[in-house]
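Ligand-bound model needed. heme C.
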Amino acid sequence: MSFSAYKLFIAPLVAATLAGCAGNGDGLDANGKPIGSSGGGTAPLTADFQSIQVNVFTPICSPCHSGASAPEGLMLDAGHSYNLLVGIPSAEVPTLSRVKAGDPNNSYMVLKIQGSAGIVGGRMPLNGTPLPQATIDVIRTWITNGAPQGTATASATNAMAKIQSLGNSAPAAPFAVTDTAPLDNTTVIAPVARIVVAFNHEVDASLINYTTLTLERVASARTDSPVPMGEVGMPPTPFVVPTSAALAAGNPSVIVLTPAAPLVTGTYRVSVRGTGGGALADVNVQTLGSDYSFTFNVDVSQ
Ligand code: HEC
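Prediction:
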């Protein structure tokens, strides 16, 4: 709520500041209405992420798709949905992204809400009333338009940050981790095929490698029981899990880690190197400033 209030405040301010160079449309949503006019659940849905979040994901999807036990690890509440949709492979059909920017027909999330042939499991919302075609069309339009996270509001916020840094009044936010999946200190159900680490800035892709990001299995099924030396098929812990890492397609502030084999039960730690010569940095050569790590358990379902 306070975030929307902030946007309501900043959008007209910056639109006014930049009136000379902003072109047309800044400060307006996809229907040409002022930003914020579609911010409530009762306002008409428009083809921008914020509106889809408020009108569809939050009220209809997030009751199931939230928290550590979110189906297929897909959290669709406001803090997580974008990071886990755009450019992230589907768990059910890993050859497809959940949302492929520019291509709704190859976006698994769209196939799931359409109930298309070829989906695994049920049509979404599961066991609920299918979304009206008009709603599906708006979501498709957002994806066709490149599935941007922001609207004119976001570019206005960026412009505001630039103005502030020119005036030396406030530095841009430090490079930081904003979201992970699995969440820190949670237990998720095996197998886990991929891990997501989201940042607040675009990441320098050339720095993504096995020294800047590591995945280790630090204990067997429970955090308090180290893997016994003799455990069948498992080396003693901690050991580094062979993993590939890359930016999510069309979502360059999100890194997807894909273990060579889906993770079995145990406790895992992801570490991001944030200092020194070999540190991860954003596209402006800003490092995290300190190392970052998070831990999660992988368990069998009850
Ligand atoms: C009643 C609970 C429930 C609701 C509501 C629900 N889902 Fe799901 N969703 C599930 C379950 C359970 C699965 C896994 C089993 C399946 O696919 O049938 C799933 C799977 C998915 C997947 C597959 C994820 C992947 O990585 O393969 C997508 C995409 C998805 N849901 C999107 C949505 C969207 C979008 C909405 C809202 C329009 C929604 N769901 C509403 C329970 C729900």
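Residues 45 and 51 are 6 Å apart (CA to CA).
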